Amino acid sequence: MAEFVLPKGSRPVRGKEHPAPEGVKNPRRFRIYRHDPDQGGNPRIDTYTIDEKDAGPMVLDALIHIKNTIDPTLTFRRSCREGICGSCAMAIDGTNALACIKETKSCRNGVVAVYPLPHRPVVKDLVPDLTALYAQYAAIQPWLKTQTPAPSRERKQPPEERAKLDGLYECILCFSCSTSCPSYWWNEEKFFGPATLLQACRWILDSRDEAAPERLDQLEDPFRLYRCHTILNCTSVCPKGLNPARAIAEIKKMMVERLA
Ligand code: SF4
Ligand code: FES
Q: Which among 57, 93, 158, 224 would be 20 to 30 A from 254, CA to CA?
């Protein structure tokens, strides 16, 4: 029987239990992943208790409150706090989500578990290393590629062609989808993953772009595209309500159609 062993030093251990502040009326506990690879040792899970009324309604509000009032060493990314920049993606209550638009009260468990996006190296605490995902995104050349001379004013796009980009252009590159995908976990060096493939679909379908054949050629590969097994985790976690699985199916359809 196969024996699976976690890499040395990867198993989280019980960390510090920060006491609840005095006079807490509406206590809410958070179990938060902590790790500093520069310090070595195993990751640990620290526990914090806050008064829910002292923080705003979102999990990001709670993290900021914890950082400001209990533990300034807690590290996480955030910027827009509007669900637009994608930087606060993390695993909350067992599911990838954007901390700034995830309501604490929507968490199913009394103790809210907060971990970094799964299956990525950790830079520190809740900050994952996304270097490899950005490199794959860059590989699809996510910009308008043209050969015809530029018109004097702009490359026009009829409304019905522009509508084909709906459900694609809204992607904020939070990578919640790719890091929730088992196929990506198993083949992350070769499979482009749902986020990058949804972006590839966005450029292939853009009527102003003139590089669709070469974009499809790049994806005609046993791993880059075809490692998608339609598991659909990507679609169920996308915080923007997008459907990367459908975008991947669209690319596969275009692959078949160009053979006809
Ligand atoms: S498709 Fe959704 S989950 Fe994936 S990167 Fe874009 S916004 Fe994030
Ligand atoms: S802080 Fe920008 S998406 Fe959450």
A: 158
